[in-house]
Amino acid sequence: MKKLSFFLMIAVLGAFAITGFAAAAWAGAPDLRGVWKGQNDTVSVKEGYRHREKSINITDQNGRRFKGTVDYSDGTNSFVGVLRGDNKSFIWADIGEDGHVFGNLLSPGVMEACYVNTGAAAVAGCAVMIQQP
Asked: Which fold has domain 34-131?
């Protein structure tokens, strides 16, 4: 009986610790809302090598979850995303497209966002983005 009580106590303490770590990660999420700008370097099957201005507008954020738009000179794509547990790395998925972005916050107000899309229209590219005041 003492062993069972001991294991139950360890399980309860472990659950509290995990819950506390998760709450701390959500509470420490940086505010990503606003406009981010930078230069995007890509290579694609259809368009070859490109260099162009990229603007991201993160319009809504709830803890580590966020959504917004990516604006290029030739169009706009909407996305949804989430910060990972370290509150520095993130992923997002295009709405209506097959692409994904993997990125990192390099420092406060600076992110690197790398886009990939697979298949016949494969694309890969990265941009260092600065959060605008």
From this structure: Lipocalin (2.40.128)
